[in-house]
Write a structure and sequence with these properties.
Length: about 425
């Protein structure tokens, strides 16, 4: 998972690395108020994950608060390499006399951690690394060994730094290594490290890539306002945030959820990522619009399936619910138990079709039939036939009028609120 600059700098700050003063702004008015705090002007930085944002107008420097408001308004809503700008970092301008580079990354081939430093920091670092590789110093470290202060001083000395600059840079290296380990990072990069006129060193930018598989032990991230979830080119919806929480709370299985069409008529849960993508094409071929993507695979517990099902049923636009799997190895009687529990707590008001294919699919299907879920099938029934049946059931149901649609949205909101309360408990 990549972090925005603002999120990355918060990690650095927690590790004791100096960063410029600043704050996030979501409007021109907010940017103007933040800029009023700094007399020497500010930098306006689009908070996107796309690299090279400066080349596309994503970083601008202004002298007055009114200019900050104007530039922020102009940047917001624009697209940088497919990513919509929704917020900007308004940050004090600092007097920089030199720009250095420092990064720590996982070296998978050597099973080690690489520390890379250079005095040629700033824009165009990739080109300089290609044309002047001798100006970049790299050292490796084993994760199972403590990182000692002298190693930071050695790296700074190899870089050619002396005196106070050597000492300050070595401290920066130690703090960055601490952050790298504490937050289970795969990459932490400061480019540039700004050397100021008063001799201080400050992280002027930050790139952070965290290990998704270690999020279960990084609870402090959410306390810092850093949402942990799948990487997307837009802010997560309430349902996506809740799905991420459901996924993290139980290590068994996965709930990969994305809201798709706000007017989609079919709420979907599927098992298996490849099958889930193929299912999207099948639904489209039958003229059905999918409201969401939800892959619930990897042997999830019944409770996890239940909460994922309730989450999908909270989508206000859906007129039908489809739970489908390809041939999978996870025990589908456990999956069926989760669906039944969800329906007992949140009875569906739309047609339901379920197709289980794989381990214990017949047992799971029998469980569903025993509680009155009639449109439940095993691997003997083709998925195309199940989709066609759901389409016919949706078409046979009374079309929703505007008032009933409003009521559906109200019920969906109520169900979503209930799911959030359950998650909080």
């Amino acid at each position: 998972m990549r972090l925005t600059e603002w999120q990355g700098k918060r990690l650095l700050s927690m590790a004791g690395i100096p960063i410029p003063r600043g704050a996030l702004a979501y409007s021109g008015v907010e940017a103007e108020k933040i800029a009023e705090r700094y007399v020497d002007g500010v930098a306006i930085k689009a908070q996107v994950l796309s690299p090279g944002r400066g080349l596309y107008g994503g970083i601008r420097f202004v002298d007055t608060p009114s200019q900050a408001a104007e530039v922020t308004t102009a940047i917001q809503g624009t697209t940088i390499l497919g990513e919509v700008v929704t917020s900007v970092l308004v940050e004090e301008r600092l007097p920089v006399v030199a720009e250095l580079y420092l990064a720590i990354r996982i070296n998978a081939s050597q099973r080690s951690i690489d520390l890379i430093a250079s005095q040629l920091g700033g824009n165009g670092i990739e080109e300089r690394a290609r044309t002047n590789p001798e100006q970049f110093v790299t050292t490796s470290h084993q994760r199972n060994k403590p990182f000692l202060p002298y190693e930071g001083r050695t790296l700074a000395a190899r870089l050619g730094l002396k005196g106070k600059a050597l000492l300050d840079f070595s401290i920066l290296v130690v703090h960055l290594y601490d952050a790298f380990c504490r937050f289970d990072a795969r990459l932490l990069e400061i480019n540039p490290v700004g050397l100021l006129t008063d001799g201080r060193m400050v992280a002027l930018d930050a790139v952070a890539l965290l290990d998704d598989d270690a999020f279960y032990r990084s609870k402090s991230l959410e306390d810092m306002g850093i949402f942990v979830g799948e990487e997307k080119l837009r802010p997560p919806t309430r349902r996506e945030q809740l799905a991420s929480s459901i996924d993290r709370e139980d290590y068994r299985g996965a709930v990969h959820y994305v809201d798709l069409d706000p007017n989609g008529e079919v709420g979907v849960i599927s098992v298996g990522s490849g099958f889930s993508i193929a299912l999207m094409d099948m639904l489209d071929a039958f003229g059905l619009t999918q409201a969401n993507f939800c892959d619930c695979s990897g042997n999830p517990s019944a409770e996890k399936v239940k909460r994922a099902t309730q989450l999908v049923l909270s989508i206000p636009s859906v007129r039908g619910f489809l739970f489908a799997s390809g041939v999978v190895s996870q025990p589908l009687d456990v999956t069926a138990a989760g669906i039944i529990a969800a329906f007992e707590e949140t009875p569906p008001s739309v047609p339901v079709v379920i197709r289980l294919a794989g381990d214990r699919d017949r047992e799971g299907c029998s469980m569903l039939h025993s509680v009155g879920i009639t449109h439940a099938y095993t691997r003997e029934r083709d998925i195309e036939d199940c989709i066609a049946e759901l389409r016919d059931l949706i078409q046979a149901a009374a079309p929703r009028t505007a008032p009933s649609l409003h009521e559906d949205r109200g019920r969906g909101e109520e169900r979503l609120n209930r799911s959030e309360r359950m998650n909080a408990d």
